[in-house]
Structure formats: C-alpha cells, structure tokens
Amino acid sequence: MSFFKKIFSSEKKETLDKGLEKSKTTFFTKLNKAVAGKSKVDEDVLDNLEEILVSSDVGVNTTLKIIGRIEERVSKDKYLGTSELNQILREEIAGLLSEVDSGNATEFTVPKDKKPYVIMVVGVNGVGKTTTIGKLASQFKKQGLNVVLGAADTFRAAAIDQLQIWADRVDVPMVRQNFGSDPASVAFDSLKSGVTQNADVVIIDTAGRLHNKVNLMNELTKIKRVMQKVLPDAPHDVLLVLDGSTGQNAFEQAKHFTAATEVTSLAVTKLDGTAKGGVVIGISDQFKIPVRYIGVGEGIDDLQVFNKFEFVDSFFK
C-alpha cells in the first residue's frame, strides 16, 4: 500500500530494522511453520496465526481484532493465498494502529505555543525511565531547544544520581533536592527554574512505586496540582515508559498507571533485546494511548519517534 513509502532516513530505518530483528525473526519462523504446505488462508492457518500473535505478545484482544479483519478479507475475496499473508498482516495491523492518533511524526518536536512544554515521566523502576529522559533531553537539545530536568523521584538516592549523570552528559541543567524531599516541591522548583531560564522543555522524573496504587495516585495528583501553581495547564504530556522486553507485564503496568493518572503518551523501551516487539501493537490498540517513542538500542540516538508505518514495515520486512 502507498503509505509504506519510506519516511525515515536510511540510518534511522536501519537502526529500527536491526532493533526489531529478534521479534521479526521469531515471528516469521513461527509463521512459516504455520503455512507450510498450505496454499490458501483457511481456518487452520488462521488458528495458527492467532496462536502466533498471542505468543508474540500482541495480546488476546488485539489478536482477535486482527484475525477478524483477515477473516473479513477472506470472506470478501473468497480466496487468499498464504503467499499474500505477510502483506495482509502489514495492511491490517497498520490500519489498526491508525485508529490511535499517534501521528506520523518522524522527528522529536514539542508544540511551540507551550513554553515551557512540560513532560511528566512516569513508570516503574527498571523500565529505562531515566535513560529515556536523558535521550529525550539530548534529542531536544540537538534541535537547539533549552531543556531543564527535574529529579522528582526523591525516594531513591540512586535515581537522583542517575539523572544527574544524564544531565551532565547532555549538558543541561537539573533541579534536585535532597533524598527524601517532597517530590511535588522538586517539580515546583523545576518549573520555576524553567520559566526563569526561558526553557523550551521541562522534563520531570517521578517515582515508580506500584505496591500501593492509592499512594501512587495521590502522589502524582499532588505533583500535577503543585506544577499548575506555576503553569495552569501543566503537565502538557504525561509520558508512561514501559519495558517492551517484559511482554504481558508491560500491559499490567499500563493498567496500573492509566488507573493512577491520565497518561497521554507512551514510550516502549528495550525492543532491541527481545522477541516481544508485538507488545507495541497490543498496547497501542488496547489503551488507545499513542506510542510516541520506542527504544531500539543502547546508543544515545537509539530512542526513536514511533512512526506506525515504519514500525510495521520493519516488523514485516
């Protein structure tokens, strides 16, 4: 289909292809076995495909939608050869992802009518939250934007230190307080600092504890309320970071955080080290929240803007 034309630069596309290699190889190994000796897409092929999609962490509900779409095409066209299955999957999954308005951006951008643009980053410890913040800061700075970081995960001294390392590496200012300080106070100071320094972007890190959802909800609500004393419409984006390598566990984390606060975008990390890349498709579909960024490598430039067409093209290449 025409929307599969190349959008990314060849270097970025190569990184994406490489990052999804494990997921793609595992998927097609299973798919080739499923269609071996079959010339047309029949009930057996669809049953096998359903099992493959679920085992690729696409998720049961999303898998059933995809199978339903393919069944409609089989019914309408009367005959579909197994040789066409790859293209059909590309088209139907791209169509499914298009129902979630993640846009077609290929570059890191922030709205120019919000200054500073405030991103509050949430997610459990260990998902790559701090690394994602550092890489985001790097990308924005490369565009000539002034960035301020806020270390509002004050429950772990290591979290503050890790963010400081990234701030130093990227050479952007960071607002911090002592370990155990009130996270909302740090967020307040970060926004005040951002306004004073004429920052374009302020990125706020938050604690990622899930053991008590009530406390998590109260804490995030308080941070947002205190930030609004400085900027009434802050935060402009609540970015949930999920570890793609955890598969179905990423779904559970998404459930917890979407219940605790209004998540407006997603970043799915660590896709290069896993065969669970299908989780991006399922999470995007199930939560109707746009996947904005994906992590496809360890390099500072290996956080990419998620473009659904490029993603599907790489996955089914």
Keywords:
317 residues, alpha/beta, Four Helix Bundle (Hemerythrin (Met), subunit A), Rossmann fold, 2 domains, eight-stranded mixed beta sheet, 12 helices, 50% helix
Task: Describe what this molecule looks like in 3D.
The protein is an alpha/beta fold and 317 residues long. The chain has 2 domains: 2-98, Four Helix Bundle (Hemerythrin (Met), subunit A) (Up-down Bundle), CATH 1.20.120.140; 117-308, P-loop containing nucleotide triphosphate hydrolases (Rossmann fold), CATH 3.40.50.300. The chain has helices spanning 10-19, 21-35, 43-55, 60-77, 85-98, 129-142, 157-170, 183-196, 213-227, 248-260, 279-287, 308-315; strands spanning 117-122, 147-151, 174-175, 201-205, 237-243, 265-269, 291-295, 303-305. Strands 3-2-4-1-5-6-7-8 form an 8-stranded mixed sheet, with helices on both faces. β7 and β8 form a beta hairpin. α3 (43-55) packs antiparallel against α4, α4 packs across α5 (85-98) and α4 packs across α11. The longest helix is centred in the first third of the chain and has 18 residues, at 60-77. The chain is elongated and about 65 Å long. The two termini are 13 Å apart. The mean pLDDT is 89. GO terms for molecular function: GTP binding; GTPase activity; signal recognition particle binding. Part of the signal recognition particle protein translocation system, which is composed of SRP and FtsY.
